[in-house]
Amino acid sequence: MFNSLFKYLSRRFHQWGSPKYFYEYASRWLPWLAFFSTMILMFGLVWGLAFAPPDYQQGDSFRIIYIHVPAASLGMSIYVFMAIASVVSWVWKIKLADMLAKSCAPLGAVFTAIALITGAIWGKPTWGTWWEWDARLTSMLILFFLYMGIIALRSAINQREIAAQATGVLALVGLINLPIIKYSVDWWNTLHQSATFKLLEKPAMPPEMWLPLLISLLGFYCLFAWLVLFYTRNEILEREAKSQWLRAQVLK
After folding, report:
1. d(C-alpha 149, C-alpha 250), whole Å
2. With 0-12 CB in 10 A as exposed, 13-18 as middle and 19+ as buried, what is 3?
């Protein structure tokens, strides 16, 4: 039984690692993800930005949380996903994993930049300053620099295998920064507020404030899924341009 399960999982794993299979899968799911991410984002953001009640301390300025928190969460999640893809690329020599890692870097940089910009906009009326060398803010800025470093390193190396290895090493080293981002508010006395949600604690906000945040968070992750499928699909088109199966797909 276990042997059969292992063979099935191994077969599925290598199937998912096939650019041909991924291209077909992405082509089917891209329209659906575009639709669902748009609908979910519109619903969550309109609810949060226009209809959620103002915060009793921060007033309407708190509404930027519906963009800031999902962007910051994605910035960290994408980095973990990118590092895992890099490890898979090394260990199993699956080129699709490197394509995913390459696609993740600019997306992670954009979402991290959005988190930093919206955090600065939020910080001005809340803290009285656009920027403070707070542990959370500083470690988030380091995350952005890590993304940019990975993008620059990949662009500077012409050989794809060497570029994948070099950027993978940098991605793994950068994982050290993620626990600092996550727990810096708890470890040090910082300006940044603690986590909005905790798994074992009741949310501090009323439902009409945190429900649109959850919906916006889901919408942002659906948007990332759409974007990473789109860019990885384009990467497949570039790398597999001479393959027979791709020519057959394009001619359909």
Report:
1. 34
2. exposed
What is the C-alpha to C-alpha distance for residues 15 and 96, in angstroms, rounded to an integer? Answer: 11
Among candidate residues 50, 47, 41, 46, the one with its CA nearest the CA of residue 70: 41
- Per-residue CA distances from 198 to 90, 195, 204, 215 (Å): 34, 7, 10, 16
Which tokens in the block code for residue 181?
């981002």
pLDDT tens digits for range 57-71:
888 888 999 999 999
Q: What percent of the chain has pLDDT over 90?
A: 61
Tokens of 67: 């963009």
Record the tokens describing residue 165, joined without a space.
């290895």
Q: What is the DSSP string of 34-93?
A: HHHHHHHHHHHHHIIIIISPPBTTTBGGGGGHHHHHHHHHHHHHHHHHHHHHHHHHHHH-
232 DSSP assignment: H
Predicted confidence (pLDDT) per residue in 33-88, tens digit? 999 999 999 999 999 999 999 988 888 888 999 999 999 999 999 999 999 999 99
The mean per-residue pLDDT over the stretch 136-147 comes to 96
